[in-house]
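Chapter review: from sequence to fold.
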Amino acid sequence: MFKFSISLKFRLYGSDKQNKKKGCVSPQFIPSATQLVQSLTGLRAKSTINNYQTALRVFGHYAGTEVVTSAVDAHLLEGFQQWLLEQHVSPNTISCYMRSIRSLLYQMQPSCRHQDLFDNIYTGKMCTDKRSIAIDEIARLRHILLPPSSPLAFSRDIFLFSFYALGMPFVDVAFLQKQQCKDGYIVYDRHKTGQRVRVRIEPLMQQIIDRYSREDSIYVFPILTASDRDAREKEYESVRSRYNRHLRKLGEMMGLGRRLTSYVARHSWASIAYHANVDLSVISKALGHTSPNTTLTYIREIDDNRIDMANKELLDRLML
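The C-alpha cell string follows.
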C-alpha cells in the first residue's frame, strides 16, 4: 500500500557533515545535475534524458534551484514526495522522478552513500488500473453537451483529437506546430523517444484543428503561450495538470467509474485497434513505440481477456 504522512517542511542540511567526511563536495544540485544531463545527451536513450530533465525541473520547483547537493537528504526527498502526492501526482510518476534523482546523485558523487536517502521513498512500480475506454464511451464523450468555449469543451476536444490521431500523447499535441501539418498528414517526432510518427488527417481531426486555429500562433492548439523554452516546459507541466483535472471531471459526468486521464486516449486507441484485429506491429508503429514489447503493456489486459474467451470457446465445443 502506498501511504505517506510526512510533513511538507524540509531542511537544507542533515547529511552535510557525513558527506564532507567522505570528501563529497556541495555544489548547487540543479545546475550541476543539468550539466551532467547535457553531457549524457546522445549517450543515453532520449527517454532517459527526458526523464532526468523533467525530474530536475519539478524538483527545482519544489526545493529551489539553489539547493546544494549535500542538502539533498532524506528529509528533503521525503518532503518532495509528500508534496508530489498533494499535487495528485501518481505513484508511478513519483517513482520515475525519484529514480532519476537517485541516478543523477550516484553519477555526480559515486563515492558518497545515497541509498539510505531513499529508504522511505517509493521507487517501485504499481500495477495501474484499466486505462482504456470502449468505442461507445468515446462516442458518449464526444456528444456530451458542453458550453462551446468552456475549458471542459476544450479538454474534451483535445482528448478526442489525441484519440483520433492514433493515440498521440498529450505532450506531442501540446507542442504540435502548424508546419508539422501539411499535405494531409501530421508528421512529428515523439518527445519521449524521438520516434517519428506519421498520421493522416481525417475529417474528425480537421474539424478540431479548424475549431482552435489561430493565426498569431505557431502551434496547432492554444495550449502553450510562452516563447522561452524553459518557460514553455514549466507552462506545460501546469497545463497538463489542469487538463487532467478537466478530464477527471468529464469522467465523473459520464459516470465512468474510473479516472479519465490524458493517458486514456492513447491506451484506448491501442485497445480498440487490437479488438479490431489490427496487427500488433501496426499498432506499435502507430504509437511510435521502439519495440512491440512496449505495446504489449498497453494491451496486456485485453490479451488476457482474449485468452479467456478462446479457452471458453474451446471448452464449449467439448459440451456439444
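Two observations follow directly from the output. The chain is about 55% helix and 5% strand. The chain has a mean pLDDT of 83.
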